[in-house]
């Protein structure tokens, strides 16, 4: 009894104990948030070298009742560890597919990219989930891009490719996110049925002033080009980035704060309407 009490005190008094409780509280609150319309869909546009919008990336936010608007860095890791990520991404997928419908007109339509965690992709009913959401929303699978990371294929490459092939056959495209970090390998570009590579923003940030990073970007781009894959530069923040990238890689797409921050869907719709792009 006394020993138990001692452990309890230790647990609740130290810093780790406090963090664990905060985490647990956030996890419980996140569960509520997903089902009580506290999540928000933000979209960030991507551009070609003519400054035309080519598509959007869906990025989730959490409108926390007390803490305000939270960025994914605060809750995605918790969602991944607790398994809530599956419900969360289901919500994001559905919102993104509905947004895709709202952004479609006879003269324009825009693909939307959605981030998919390795945990979600690995679920047995991932394909069924996607098909269900597509039929529920009547969205066009040809305008859905799923952003995955290489952490997906650490286990069984064949099984991953097989699953991706099924989805590719119904028109869905895949993009490799944060390429160049982690276990990135040019082999994945060849083996995975992907349409797009997103070059991690850490390389883009330094490329204009760092010959090694510039060469890494050039190498990824060259390989992607050769395989007919689109490349997207992430984290394009400055005019210097834009100039450097458009000069060296004219067909690379750009995404970043230089052009636009992620914005709520309604703001995007208003802008597209104003610019007569819808
Ligand atoms: P990511 O997939 O690499 O998304 C791009 C992140 O870079 C976004 O951060 C975006 O706001 C930020 N960003 C865009 N342009 C710039 C720029 O010019 N400079 C800088 N410094 N940052 C820029 P955000 O929205 O905070 O999201 C962070 C991460 O959270 C995402 O990184 C993604 O890994 C994850 N995430 C967001 N939504 C989802 C989701 O629905 N599911 C999953 N699994 N992860 C998500
Ligand atoms: Ca992404
Ligand atoms: Ca990324
Ligand atoms: Ca990232």
From TrEMBL:
Q: Which GO terms describe its biological process?
A: phosphorelay signal transduction system
Q: Which residues form the EAL domain?
A: 23-276
Q: Which organism is it from?
A: Terasakiispira papahanaumokuakeensis
* Protein name (Swiss-Prot/TrEMBL): Two-component system response regulator
Instruction: Supply the alphabetized keyword list.
Output: Phosphoprotein
